[in-house]
Amino acid sequence: MDAGPAVAAERQSHVDAVLARLFSLARKRAEPLGPTYVELWRQIEASTTGGKRFRPRMVFAAYGALGGTDYEAAANVGAAFELLHTALCLHDDVIDHDFARRGTPNVAGVYRDEALAAGVELSAAEHHGSSAAVIAGDLALFNAYRLIDRSGVSDDVRARLLEVMDDALFASAAGELIDIDFALKPEDPHVDDILTMERLKTAVYSFEGPLQAGAILAGAAEEIIETLGEFGRDIGIAYQLVDDVLGVFGAEAETGKTTIGDLREGKRTVLIAYAAAARGWDELAPLFGDPSLTDADAARLRTHLVDSGARTFGEGLARYYANRAVTRLVESHIPERLRAELHPVADAVLGRAK
After folding, report:
1. Rounded to 5 degrees, what are φ and ψ at 104?
2. Residue 238 gets which letter from DSSP?
3. How many whole angstroms separate alpha carbon 69 and alpha carbon 63?
């Protein structure tokens, strides 16, 4: 997304090594406390594998383009944001009562299935799985901060990095709260409300924070750090908008998720906010959020999203935010190398929807 294949692979190898070392030490530390605890750490590690690692890639994109050369420090910071992502996903799955992610059992699902195999009743088994996932998320969250502490940077830089991490977590919690509050309100949320939720819940820790952390690690000027935050905010919103479109219209083989899950869940997105204001929604509204939604009825909802202009609106809004992100890079204090590193990020975000 942000560098040539060889460079990206080298950067990822550094991040993977940091995470492998962390989990190896954690398992050894857990051994005296019993095999059950060791297994939980294996499950946390499994939750971090197979991802695109684009949060660490954002750290490296800013860091490398701004002249950073200490790959070990950057890898620790990048791994910290990856582990933060793991923690938030584990907790989000508990909130959403999900027992699978990308078609395979998540931590909650693994422990639920284990309990079911032992003859435990379903509701108790699900509680068992969710409880294990909460513990796993807590451990991942705590160790994300530990990775910053172990990055080997100066006290001043570490304090700044921890502040960025804290801001990201603080914002994500606010966004998650807004998201769950949507379900309590009888009226459909406005587009602006959904954009605020998506920015806080995901964009800050996925784009804004990692980019700013990479710049801080490289010793960049404050105006560059600020501009990278603005770029990250806009490109992060664009990413989420594209994600929402793919959640309903994407190819499962490419996205790793079904195109019926968001409709069954009743996920509030910009597409739904737009479609709900269009003629014909009242008839279809009972289908949205129905856990037993059929493929045929999902097709009816998709047809309405297209005919009402909701899909076009969502894709257009994604392009708007991606283009706005790119305009941040034309400011005179942004080095050309940084522009060259980040332009492909915007292209890749929009390219996901094609």
Report:
1. -125, 155
2. H
3. 8
250 pLDDT tier (thresholds 50, 70, 90): confident
**Model confidence over 113-160: pLDDT tens digits?**
999 999 999 999 999 999 999 999 999 999 999 999 999 999 999 999
- This prediction's pTM: 0.93
Of the candidates 285, 279, 251, which has an alpha carbon nearest to the alpha carbon of residue 266?
Answer: 285
Handedness of CA 347, 50, 19, 91 (dihedral sign): positive
Joined together, the tokens standing for residue 339 give 């522009």
Separation CA 354–CA 348 (nearest Å): 10
Residue the block writes with tokens 């906010």? 273
What six digits make up the tokens of 77? Answer: 């910071």
Dihedral sign of CA atoms 323, 325, 326, 328 in order: positive
104: β partners: 101
Position 2 scores a pLDDT of 47
Residue 222, exposed/middle/buried by CB under 10 A (0-12, 13-18, 19+)?
Answer: exposed
Tokens of 307: 């005919």
Task: Average the pLDDT over 69-88 and give the result.
Answer: 96
Q: Which two tokens stand for residue 237?
A: 């919103």
User: Alpha-carbon distance 85 to 73, whole Å?
Assistant: 19
pLDDT at 185: 82
Instruction: Please report, rounded to a whole number, the percentage of residues in the chain having pLDDT higher than 70.
Output: 97
Closest CA to 96 of 341, 264, 248: 264
Indicate whether 255 pLDDT > 70.
no
Distances (CA, A) of 123 to 7, 127, 173, 190, 241: 47, 6, 27, 35, 34
Between CA 296 and CA 302 the distance in angstroms is: 10
